[in-house]
Amino acid sequence: MTTETLPRVFSGVQPSGLPHVGNYLGAFRNYIAMQDGHDAIYCIVDYHALTSTHDSELIRRNTHEMALGLLALGLDPEKAVLFRQSDRPEHAELAYLLSTVVPVSWVERTPSFKEKKRTQPDDVNHALLTYPVLQTADIAIYHARYVPVGKDQAAHLELAREIVRAWNARYGDYFVEPEAVFTDSPVVRGTDGVQKMSKSLGNVVEIFGDEAVIRKQIMSMVTDTQRVLRTDPGRPEVCNVCQLHRFFGDDYELIWDGERTARTGCVDTKRLLADRMLTFFAEARERRRELEAKPGYVEEVLRAGAETLAPMAAETLRVVRDRMGLG
Ligand code: TYM
Question: The domain containing residue 231 runs over which residues?
């Protein structure tokens, strides 16, 4: 729980549906590892979700789902704080205050904004533009130094550093410059074998879906496209299925060797990956079922998390408002 002495960690996840293997390997593994020896705070960012959907029921349901998933995967509310962003509306106020030192050109050139303009051309809303400023506020409000994320968040973290530097330069040193912390799989490719795994691209392998669905997702994975015949040697370095084997067993070199020498085919390797992933996540899947059966449990965790953070958020805003000449 929050103390003055341990290094502080913050990260956030959008309530965008069920957690997938990319979230887990790219970020959640570190969330869970860093709850020991750190003062860790994790957030379901429902304000951010409003930049891409206006379905209020979906946001509420997915927020609950994501929290349930994180708890099932091993996030321990006795060790780390888990809360819902909109339960600490101070984030929104700090985002506004920070935005006053952010040149529009900085946010306009953010890769995620450019991508959203392309992928949701009918809803290029203002909040999409200021998305990274709110993300900066999320981190800065608790003075977090370490931010476990996947590589797709690197540009946002770089911008966060620039934003706090700009504010500190104008109003006096106060905010910590946050650092991204990556796992050894910072970019997990999706079932298409090319793009990063992402719910919006529809190329995910789920963690908590039906077993049959997960098997189907894995069996649909694109492998080494140059391996056409069963007898062709495979190239595990480029094959996404082979790459994923590194994280779900300690004998991946043997599996890679079978591919290189064409002793095994892609179908065998995928079937084995499906078995291993399901075994790997079996405990979490069971725990999710148990937690789901406890009425009110998730809500209680989220409520308590937000309450724990109230004094810290209030203190940051007191200082910021004071330095900026408000109140
Ligand atoms: P989000 O919700 O898209 O993803 C949550 C976390 O999962 C990581 N991730 C991946 N890592 C590797 N390979 C993949 N295919 C993959 N897909 C997802 C993401 O990098 C992320 O760490 N903007 C953030 C949410 C956010 C936030 C914050 C993060 C809001 N405020 C403050 C850190 C600190 C996002 O949309 O993550």
Answer: 199-283
Q: Are residues 257 and 147 in the same domain?
A: no
Measure 186 CA to ligand 1 centroid, in angstroms. 10
pLDDT interval class at 80 (50, 70, 90): very high
* Largest CA-CA distance found in the chain, in angstroms, rounded: 74
Atom of ligand 1 nearest to the CA of 131: 23
Does 112 sit in the ligand 1 pocket, CB within 6 Å?
no
Query: Are 132 and 169 members of one domain?
Result: yes
At residue 89, the pLDDT reads: 98
196 carries an active-site annotation: yes
- Does some domain include residue 237? yes
- DSSP per-residue codes, 72-100: HHT--TTTSEEEEGGG-THHHHHHHHHHT
Q: Which atom of ligand 1 is nearest to the CA of 196?
A: 15
Same domain, 182 and 314: yes
Q: Which of 79, 117, 151, 196 is catalytic?
A: 196
Kindly report the protein residue whose alpha carbon is nearest to atom 26 of ligand 1.
12
**Ligand 1: centre distance to CA 27 (Å):** 7
DSSP string computed for 15-64:
--SS-BHHHIIIIIHHHHHTTSSSEEEEEE-HHHHTTT---HHHHHHHHH
CATH of residue 99? 3.40.50.620
174: pLDDT strictly greater than 60: yes
CB 178 less than 6 A from any atom of ligand 1: no
Is position 199 annotated as part of the catalytic site? yes
pLDDT digits (tens, 9 = 90+) for 243-254: 999 999 999 999
